[in-house]
Amino acid sequence: MAPRGDIGFMPAVSSREAVVSLPDFLSAEECDRLIAYGETAGMAPGRLTGGVMVSGIRSASTLWLDDDTLPWLGDRLIEGLALLNRRWFDFALMGFDEGFQLLRYDGTAEGGDFYDWHIDIGRQGLNASRKLSLVLQLSDPADYEGGCLEVNADGTPAAQVRARGTLTAFPSYVLHRVTPVTAGRRYSLAAWAHGPAFR
């Protein structure tokens, strides 16, 4: 089978088919290391593509990481990406062309940080070559309320696995969101695998 993505392939899939999760991808200790690094390095308000801030679409704190910052993380994500793509997606991929984004969502009773419905693929720049989106759950689900990653590939929002250390992947053209965190604090990490543009 030829790799998908450079041959006019953008399949219609259901929310259940669109998402794959690898449990225990990181240990609790590794999750703690990432969270501690983010808090020590300092996180800034999250922005949309092009550096735009739109409070009605996204509210979260972010920190960009790269292979030089945390080499072990890049190695692990490459291993996870290779496994996911080989077994489930079979997309034509070239690797991670941008850094990884550490995310913190703070909760309030009125409805805290969130990221409304969006897709990760764009029309220009690095966003145009995003093929596979990866979300790594760093927080223990007992540490926060709300903050659910939902994927909507077919008009039916589907809540994703919240277990700590789980790596979740879905095509970058699939609609998804993080619901408002209503208490506590949720940490995650996002990464995007790039390749020839879907046509």
From TrEMBL:
Which GO molecular function entries does the Swiss-Prot or TrEMBL record give? Answer: oxidoreductase activity
Q: Which PROSITE patterns match?
A: FE2OG_OXY (PS51471)
Q: What is its EC number?
A: 1.14.11.-
Give the keywords, sorted.
Dioxygenase, Iron, Metal-binding, Oxidoreductase, Vitamin C
User: Gene3D superfamilies given for it?
Assistant: q2cbj1_9rhob like domain (2.60.120.620)
A Pfam family per the record: 2OG-FeII_Oxy_3
Which residue numbers delimit the Fe2OG dioxygenase domain? 95-195
* Ranges that cross the membrane: none
Which cofactors are required for activity?
L-ascorbate
Q: What is this protein called?
A: 2OG-Fe(II) oxygenase
